[in-house]
Amino acid sequence: QYSLIKDVVSSLKRHRMHEQQFTHHPLLVLSNFGLQQIQVKLMASMFQNMFPSINVHRVNLNNIKRCLLITYNTETQLLDFRHYSVKVVPVGVSKGLKKLLQEKFPNMSRFEDISELL
């Protein structure tokens, strides 16, 4: 079973697809591939070698725009592929500061000082 990209995009309320999402490789997450069967180990190795490994100490989180989740179902022996878009947003800051950090400059005509925005 599969879905075409045009069907997925048409079902979304707000889709976020742009070219910058595909400039870097996705973060690969493998689920239920810890079994000792040789075919499961081979599949896990194949998926891991399709994408470059990530050094967690040197990775820039702003470069990770996608996540690819592959789950192996042991009962049905089927693979589930999920491809997610990742967006990094500031948390725990005021609405005005969040807009500045996301490079969306708010209308400051009603403020006398930048401290009123923050």
TrEMBL record:
It is found in: Nucleus, Nucleolus. It comes from Grus americana (Whooping crane). One of its GO terms (biological process) is rRNA processing. Residues 1-118 form the Brix domain. Its main location: nucleus. This is SSF1 protein. GO terms for molecular function: rRNA binding. Pfam families: Brix. One of its GO terms (cellular component) is preribosome, large subunit precursor.
